[in-house]
């Protein structure tokens, strides 16, 4: 297991290299000159050229990329072109809202999906099963930003129960923090919960007809014990993969949700940085998300072993 983990961690470097090449190339293909954008329309050609020289934008593409990626491996993402501070500091200042939003949303999605999927599978083709699957399909079909707007209209405009947007630090006022995070969490977790519930139902239907489940019933074990201790445990193996994939989707979805609810997180910073042509911030944010996704999938692989003892990772 240790050798496997070390190999996966080493694979993080080529993954980041591929992501870095793609992001770096796409960023530099965007029309416009970041130096001209920074200085404004009143800037002279000489001022623009001087800034391009200072930022290293006049160097060949491969030279710029090599310098940037070498610094990335040292966790040095450079300085923001607009914020006048290191990119690392800019991301750290905004990681709490994004991290908490993703954590809340993933937790809520899992808490909804597992019971819904299990109940739908156990009561297959019943009215409850059909209602739960309608919820699941709705979650997959409705975009999270549109669902967020509907939540604002209902709970903030019509009922006035919750604030329409903004963010309160959890250390300043936990109650107000939770009030501001309720609707963004619901909006971001809705689609993931629907997808997870469908997968749990499908996995449960597969294992409920296996021999070991019938054997457990033949031994006289209680129905709840068979479902939770035998069937559900094996059904969670493919579910873990979807959890890892959903985490990446939530990190990407936070870009839109943070903009809709005016949350000062990494997603909103990314949108602003794209508009400003702030190359270092955009590249760093995408690289961080890619690294987090690789580490999450590594954690999922490790959890496989604890859920199913038959799973083993050899040293070859």
From TrEMBL:
Q: In which broad location class does this protein mainly occur, judging by the first location in its UniProt entry?
A: membrane
Protein name stated in the entry: ABC transporter permease
Similarity remark: Belongs to the binding-protein-dependent transport system permease family.
Subcellular localization, as worded in the UniProt entry: Cell membrane
Q: Where is the ABC transmembrane type-1 domain positioned along the sequence? A: 95-300
A Gene Ontology term for the protein's cellular component: plasma membrane
TM region positions:
9-30, 101-122, 134-161, 181-200, 235-261, 281-307
Give UniProt keywords alphabetically. Answer: Cell membrane, Membrane, Transmembrane, Transmembrane helix, Transport
* PANTHER family with a match to the protein in the record: DIPEPTIDE TRANSPORT SYSTEM PERMEASE PROTEIN DPPB-RELATED
Membrane topology term reads: Multi-pass membrane protein
Q: Which InterPro entries match?
A: BPD_transp_1_N, MetI-like, MetI-like_sf
């Amino acid at each position: 297991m240790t050798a496997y983990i070390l190999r996966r961690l080493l694979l993080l470097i080529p993954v980041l290299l591929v992501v870095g090449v793609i992001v770096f190339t796409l960023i530099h293909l965007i029309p416009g000159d970041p130096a001209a954008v920074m200085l404004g329309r009143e800037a002279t050609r000489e001022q623009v050229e001087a800034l391009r020289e200072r930022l290293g934008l006049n160097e060949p593409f491969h030279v710029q990329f090599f310098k940037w990626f070498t610094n990335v491996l040292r966790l040095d993402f450079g300085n923001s072109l607009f914020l006048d501070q290191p990119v690392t500091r800019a991301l750290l200042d905004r990681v709490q809202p994004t991290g908490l939003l993703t954590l809340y949303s993933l937790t809520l999605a899992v808490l909804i999906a597992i019971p819904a999927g299990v109940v739908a599978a156990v009561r297959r083709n019943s009215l409850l099963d059909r209602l739960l699957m309608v919820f699941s399909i709705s979650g997959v079909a409705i975009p999270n930003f549109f669902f967020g707007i509907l939540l604002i209209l209902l709970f903030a405009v019509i009922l006035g129960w919750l604030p329409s947007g903004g963010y309160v630090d959890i250390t300043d006022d936990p109650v107000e923090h939770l009030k501001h995070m309720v609707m963004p969490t619901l909006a971001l977790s809705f689609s993931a919960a629907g997808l997870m519930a469908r997968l749990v139902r499908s996995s449960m239907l597969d294992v409920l007809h296996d021999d070991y489940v019938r054997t457990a019933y033949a031994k006289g074990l209680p129905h709840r014990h068979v479902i939770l201790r035998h069937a559900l445990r094996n059904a969670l193996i493919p579910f873990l993969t979807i959890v890892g994939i959903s985490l990446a989707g939530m990190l990407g979805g936070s870009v839109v949700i943070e903009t809709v609810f005016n949350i000062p997180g990494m997603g909103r910073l990314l949108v602003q940085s794209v508009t400003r042509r702030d190359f270092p911030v955009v590249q760093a944010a995408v690289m961080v998300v890619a690294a987090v996704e690789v580490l999450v999938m590594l954690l999922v692989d490790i959890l496989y072993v604890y859920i199913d003892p038959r799973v083993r990772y050899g040293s070859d």
